[in-house]
Amino acid sequence: MAEDIYGIIGGGPSGIGLAKSFKQNGIPFEVIEQEGDFGGVWNFGTGAGRVYESTHLISSKKNTQFSDYPMPDDYPVYPNHRLFLAYLRDMARHFGLYEHARFGSRVEAVQPEGRRWRVTTTDGVEKRYAGLFVATGLQREPRTPSYPGGFRGTSLHAADYLGADILRGKRVLVVGGGNSGCDIAVDATAVAKTVHHSTRRPYHYMPKFVDGRPTQDWLMDLPRRFADRNELWAHVGEVLKLVGCDPSDYGLPKPDYGVDQSHPIMNSLVLHHIAHGDIVAKPDVRELQGDSVLFADGSRAEVDVIVYATGYRMSCPFLPEGLVTWRGLRPELFAAIFHPDHETLCFVGTRNAAGGFGNVSNACSAMLSAYVHAMERQTPSFRVVREMCRGPGPDLGQDHFLRSDRHDIEVDLWKFIKLLNFLRTKLEG
């Protein structure tokens, strides 16, 4: 019966990782996915898709893959979106997840009924589940800034950007300094008449390779060489200077925060194109003026197309109003996972860490499998963990990062994994 199984809402990477663990641990489940197949944001050209033609992983395959299902040997170090989507679906097939998935079913409403949950979907099905695990991802609702004035050209969010053809022969402005904004600005240099790139603050940049190795692989090995965190990041700054990634060398403002205090911009080309004049760097937009844009430094640019690579917010419109308390862009959850009052409602993938997705997903999913088993037996260790869920949240390193909407969801990779392993051990005890 449906009410004896657990519902996983979302068939993207986090949902796949959790379903895999449930399958391995004999936990009955069903994945509810609005698209026609697994993939989530990697489903190019669909409503859930958030990738474009030139999208590649910004973390190496070693730091992205699941340790119990490595990417194929013939995959490049930074696979493109098609290869990564194929990998996710191959993994789902390998672990027998397709027989537990209901595709083309968007969740419309969720209602608690005691410890269980009644879920209504767009395909007209209504089921009750023993528990719900929300894995709908961070990139659900596009965020677009509002500026004074008006713009007569074409405006679109990165969520609707599929490739550079729309920019061909146009005067392009890309707003947003994150990884997508840098990628799209680089895309535009090949086809656009002019390219301007507006950012609200200075950024640190990292190349895809350092010392002949993927940058994140190189970074992961550094703690073995430096006992002191400050010495480690001072060394990283020196190396980035040597490899040509000091923004001040390109006439860009120098960040007033450390390299380790923000999510990394992994791009080997954006500074190259700025140095060659293919991309003109600009500060924040002050006003839209018809066919032109006024920037914070008083300069103007004539523009035909604006692409807003300005991020997303989580969105769970199917949850009853007031069920979850939101703090900025993130839900208030213990360990970024557990609802403080409803033990059968959990969230997966609500935080971001630099690198190690497969390792984080495996650690989180293994812990949640232990959580379900302990919950079903109502063990003393489960009651201890649930008591923790009602208290203050653990230190996930979030206070070390910049104060910004983007970094409100950022956590320290190693602190997060350490916490997940601690909770798993506690639940299994």
TrEMBL record:
Keyword vocabulary terms for this entry: FAD, Flavoprotein, Monooxygenase, NADP, Oxidoreductase
Keyword Flavoprotein on entry: yes
EC numbers for this chain: 1.14.13.148
Pfam families tied to this protein: FMO-like
GO molecular function: monooxygenase activity
Top-level EC class: oxidoreductase
Gene3D superfamilies in alphabetical order: FAD/NAD(P)-binding domain
Stated family: Belongs to the FMO family.
Name of the protein in its database record: Trimethylamine monooxygenase
Organism: Azospirillum argentinense
